[in-house]
Structures are given as structure tokens and as C-alpha cells.
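Re: the request from the purification team.
They wanted to know what the chain is likely to look like in 3D before they choose a buffer screen. I agreed to run a prediction and write the result into the notebook, where they can find it.
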Amino acid sequence: MSELGFAIKVFRQIGLLQPQLPHRLIGAGWQLAKWGPGFPSAVGVAAARFPHQLAIIDDAGELTWSEVRDETNRLTQGLKDRGLEAGDSVALLCRNHRYMVIAAVAIMQAGGRILLLNTMASSSQLGELSVRENAKMVVLDQEFLTVGDTVDRDKLVLAWVDGAKPEDLPSLDEIAQGKSAKNHPKPSSHGSVVIFTSGTTGLPKGAKREEPEDLKPLLAFFGSIPYRGNKVVVLAAPLFHSWGLINFGFGLSTVPTYVMRRRFDVVKVIKDIEKYKADVLVVVPLMIQRLVNVDPEIIRTTDTSSLRITASSGSALAGDLANHFMDLYTDSVYNFYGATETGWVTIASPQQLRDAPGTAGTPPFRTNVLILDADGNELPQGETGVIHVGNDMPFGGYTDGNNKSFKNGLMSTGDLGYFDALGRLFVCGRDDDMVISGGENVFPRELEDALIDHPSISDVVVAGIPDKAWGQSLAAYIVVRDGETITEAEIIAFAKERVARFAVPRKIMLLDELPRNPTGKVMKRELPDFD
């Protein structure tokens, strides 16, 4: 199929080519021509095309697209009146809700630079990042006020307000109150977003993301994850993370209804899918694990048959997790492999996950993925090397001026992997996670995928530890399912049946839970040491 034919197919799929009233089409076209691709134009286009459609359902109620547009315009004016200018930075420390969305779009509409902060950020991190990134304002939910105690108080603005609001701090509602809902002129500089890495060592790095210059990224994304126009999207993944953000940002072009909750509640998610006939669920793998582990009676008595897409990313899908989920719910898992810096690399469809559990899928439209050796030479099918990628979402570099490693014009993911005979990618693990045990290269993920399939194990992570005899060996940190028991001998016997001798764990520790961040990644630096 030609690129034009592919584009027409995808645009029809997501509803961009459906018939509209002439005045609404003119309004939408004017917004797109004025702003180009991006958050401000997408909200303006949605409001022009479907003003009365519900845009956001959250813990505060419901908003239509015209209401979102008007509230965004009022807040944009309010922020400008408080001194926000094009190019200024504003930090956001918020959970998923209307104020997070409206603030993000308003900041970009004013030409500002959004600093998306992890809700697990510490007080010292927030203080240091706000200084390092020269934040003019810090917008945060009231629950994070203690985290904000290292920031100048006159910079603080409250987003979600709980209980009694401090009188000396303005809220977004107050800043927008009484302001004009008229459209704003295009700012002198384009708005941008900075997403912060996990900060496993030292202060998190800021990864710059510019707005797309054209619609080609939409073709890649929706060509592999078949969103449809005007459907309900349960957005459970956090908006501060690149996965939640890309589904929100790209999803805007489909004019959906977003259902978002401030906290992930597995039962509430299932009930929201049923109540609103959700077409799409956006999650990270830890959420899939919790949806699989929920009380079977809740699954049996709740209708989730509307679910066509369960879009997952953020960390690896362990073992047969995708298939366990699809057995319980619907054949809907699309697993996105990529990173904040790389954008997408590959996307696995439900059928690919059924046929080859653990695959990361295949490269989407206009995406080039190669497996390279240390010298930059392409490796043949089946051989493991470093995964490199090029696509239509180029990385803008880190805010400290550094960048990722490139070879042959492609960015290194830092992951090791290989392609099988059908062109499906398999990710073995991080290059720096590889363990050399007795001269053998061992990847922790292989053992993790094996152990998670034990019926008594609900969560597991594997790490390399020093070993006098073997140089390094594997240690397994395991969480046992409620009501179950398991011995170290049983774990080792189970592993021996499924992995090579050198991949069997030599140390095992049972924990109540693994230290994970909000996107589900295990923070290995917080794992306890073995005596």
C-alpha cells in the first residue's frame, strides 16, 4: 500500500475523514492552520468538531470539549496575567485529572515549557529541578504541598484542591476565574514538554520533546494501535509518563472521551470499562498484573466486552502475562516497546503476543530498527546485539545538553535483542543488566519470565549479585500470592525445569512487595542486600 493509501486508511479509521457540518469543518481547519499539530490545535479542533461531546470524566465530574476549550483559554489568560511568557518553564506535579490536562494545554498555548514531574518526586528533587530548569511556576496538587516545601512559596499554584485550601496559595480555578474564553494568538515560540527519567542515579534527567511537525507520527501510532474516532478511553497510565502522555496527545486527534482517575483502583477501572463501554484502556504492565490478579468474581460479574485495545508500555510484559489478561478479558493487548528518548521502536499486536509470548512486535510505519554489534555492524537474524532505532519522533536531547548514543544515524536504545525469522523483535534486557555467570551471558528477564508463571508467585524481579565462585550470579526477589506458600527449594526446582543451569537463582528473598515507581518499573537500588 502506498503512503497516501495508508494515510487515508488510518485517517478514516480515527474519524478525521468523517462528514461534518461545514461551519464545524471550517472552525477545525482554522485551528489546525493557525497552530499546526499539537495540544492547543487538537483541543481547538475537537471543540470545533464535537463541542457537546464529553471530553473528560474524572473524580470531579464531566466536561465537554467546548468546556475544556473555554477553561483552557481562561487559564491561558490567567497565566499570562501572572507573568507567564513564551519560553518560560512551568513544573507540573499532578495526578490524572482535568486540571492536569487544562494546565498542560494552557501552558503550551502560551508558548511555555512544561516540566512533567513524577508524583514520587522527593522534596529535594522538586527543589533542585525547579532551580536547574528555571521553573517560573510550580503547579501541584494540594497533597504534594509537603513535597513543594523547598520551592519559593510565591511560585506555587494548586491544581487539585483537597479540603481547606491555604489562603496564601492561588488555585488554577481562581487564576482562570472571570477571564475571557476567547481564543489566543499564536505565541512567539512553540510550546514544548520535558519528561524526566526515573533518576536511578542522582537527579532525574530532563528529556526534551517537541511537538510533531506533521501528522506522520499519527500514522505510525494509529497504524499499529487501531484507535477509532469518538470512543471512550480509560487513561489509567500516569500523564506525567511518556506512555500516558502520548496516548493523551495523539488520542486527541480521535476526539475521544477520556476517563481518568487520580489513583489507580483496579475494581474502579473494570467498572469504568463496563459503565462507559470503553473501547481503549491505557495501562502500564503492573496494572495488567493487578487486573489479572483481581477477584475472579469481579471479572465474572462485569461486562468488559467493549474493550478493543489494552495499550501497554513502560516496562516488559513478564512471561505469559498478556495472554493471561486476554484469557480473562478480551484479545486486546497491544504492547508498545520504546522509551521517552526513542519514542516507539516496535509494537506487538494481540495476535503476535498469542503466537509468540514475550515478543516486542514489529516496527510500525516509517520506523527503522537494526540490531548492531559494538562496531556498528548490522547483525543477522537470530543474533543478539544492541537495538537501534530511527522514526518520525526525533529526540530533542537532554536539558543538560547531552544526548543519546547514535550509530549509522540510528539511536541506541541501550537494550539488547534480536529478530526472529518472522521479523518479530525480542528484547533480552538492558545492556548494563546483563550478568556474566561462569563465563555465560545471562539476562535477568529470562528467569523473571519463567518464575512469574509459578501459580504461587505474584511478582518477581531478578538482579545480578557478586559471586566468588561464578563472578556473578542471579538473585530472585519474590512476592508470594496472598494465601499461598512456597519454599526456596520449590522455587529452584521450578527454575531448573525452565532455564539453563547458569540462569538458576543462587539467592532468593521473599518480600511483601517490590519497590516500584508509578509506571511499574522496579527501583533496583531500593532492593535489600543479601547478608
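For the purification team: The chain has three domains: 3-210, 216-432, 434-526.
Please add any questions underneath this entry.
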